[in-house]
Structures are given as structure tokens and as C-alpha cells.
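ligand=guanosine-5'-monophosphate
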Amino acid sequence: MTYDSTNIFAKILKGELPCHKVHEDDNALVMMDIFPQSKGHTLIVPKAPSRNLLDADPAAISAVMPLVQRVARAVKAATNADGIRLAQFNEAPAGQTVFHLHFHVIPVYEGVPLGA
Ligand code: 5GP
């Protein structure tokens, strides 16, 4: 499968669509998920154009993973969540719906099912 630059996250990265941005640097944009699975659900979207983890440049992955950790720590502190789920899906059968690499940081609250 190839990268299609008309995907929603590519448009957000280009500023063609709005988002609730919480951070941006040379490597990635961090924004709130529009349909959060829990309070504080945050997405890290690397700027390098890859469809998902399977076709991504290893150097681009290395560049963004420290930010993923920073966001996970910051979201946990800001939400007082009991845990953090890190999720990342590759291709539609695995649950991917937006075909530009991204990482989900999903706060988990004891006794509260995700999606509730
Ligand atoms: P995937 O299943 O591809 O890993 O997840 C895509 C995520 O992007 C979903 O959690 C969905 O709610 C989120 N999403 C879809 N469209 C938009 C959008 O336009 N803006 C934002 N901020 N999130 C989106």
C-alpha cells in the first residue's frame, strides 16, 4: 500500500484543516483526538509522510519516540489517569482508519471502560 497525501492528518499538517493542537516541533504535531476514547486522548502525528509503522523510515520513528514518551508522561500528569495506553494500528483490518502514521496516547481510569 502506498501513501496517499490526501488523508485527513496530511491536511491537518498542511494547515488545510483545523485541529486542537497541543504541541508542534520539527518532527511531529500533537493534537487532541476528535473522537476521544477517554478524557485526554491525544495523538502524536509524525510529519514524515508514511502510511503507518510498516512503511515508516526507522530514522523518523527514532526521532519521534522520545516525544511519544513525553506526551504520555504529560497526559498522565495532566489527567491524573491511573494508566496510559499507547496504541498504533497498521492497515484497516487492524483498526487503522486514518492512513498517516500516528500514535494514540489514551488515559485509562480505573473502573471507566474506554469509549464510555
Ligand atoms: P486510527 O484508527 O487510524 O489509529 O485512529 C484515527 C484516529 O483519528 C481516531 O481516534 C479518530 O477519532 C481520530 N480522528 C479522525 N479524524 C480526525 C480529525 O479530523 N481530527 C482529529 N483530531 N482526530 C481525528
